[in-house]
Amino acid sequence: MAVPGAQEFVPESHDLGTLAAAARGCRGCGLYRDAEQTVFGAGPTSAKLMLVGEQPGDQEDRAGQPFVGPAGRLLDKALIAAEVDRGDVYVTNVVKHFKFTRAAGSKRRIHKTPSRTEVVACRPWLFAELTAVAPEVVVLLGATAAKALMGSDFRLTAHRGEVLELSDEAAAALPGSDPYLLATPHPSSVLRGPSDKRDAAFAALVEDLHTAVGLLA
């Protein structure tokens, strides 16, 4: 069955409150059926820096807020190390519903990467947030977020830390928007990585955030 996409649910508004309220009723893909709720972005409309992740996790789905679980706490730590006040940053995800699976006989919800079809279906909400906030710099946290704005052929390992531009497709959907883009691994990858390499991975994340801050006018 074809995925209708979120576009028909996105109002013509630059008000984040209006967008967030509308997103709660989105039926642009099937992920809303199992998730607890829509998890929209959070932060000031005036934010110069936007951080974009993949999708909400288990704790975010229950709380209705982005980046409040383990990855969010590590991100907070990295922002502090990079001398960034999270209160000045707009934080969101490409996909607004938690996609998960369960092992046989278990109630534990295990993260499942959204498909490209689901990313594209949900992406109009991200485009609306980018238009409303108009950040100067966007940090793409992880491959899913990076490919959403850079195209499906984008390789994070090849372009990590580089100053990037929107793909032609994303640029066409965001006329007049020309933020600096920077891609870095998702904070969850630091948590999942080998214990003897976590300090180095965390330091690299902080360095990328420093680079992003340095791009602000």
Automatic annotation (TrEMBL):
List residues of the Uracil-DNA glycosylase-like domain: 40-210
Q: Where is the signal peptide?
A: none
Report the record's Gene Ontology biological process terms. Answer: DNA repair
Q: Which UniProt keywords apply?
A: 4Fe-4S, DNA damage, DNA repair, Hydrolase, Iron, Iron-sulfur, Metal-binding
Identify one Pfam family in the record. Answer: UDG
Under Gene Ontology molecular function, one entry of this record is: 4 iron, 4 sulfur cluster binding
Q: Which family does it belong to?
A: Belongs to the uracil-DNA glycosylase (UDG) superfamily. Type 4 (UDGa) family.
Q: How is this protein named in the record?
A: Type-4 uracil-DNA glycosylase
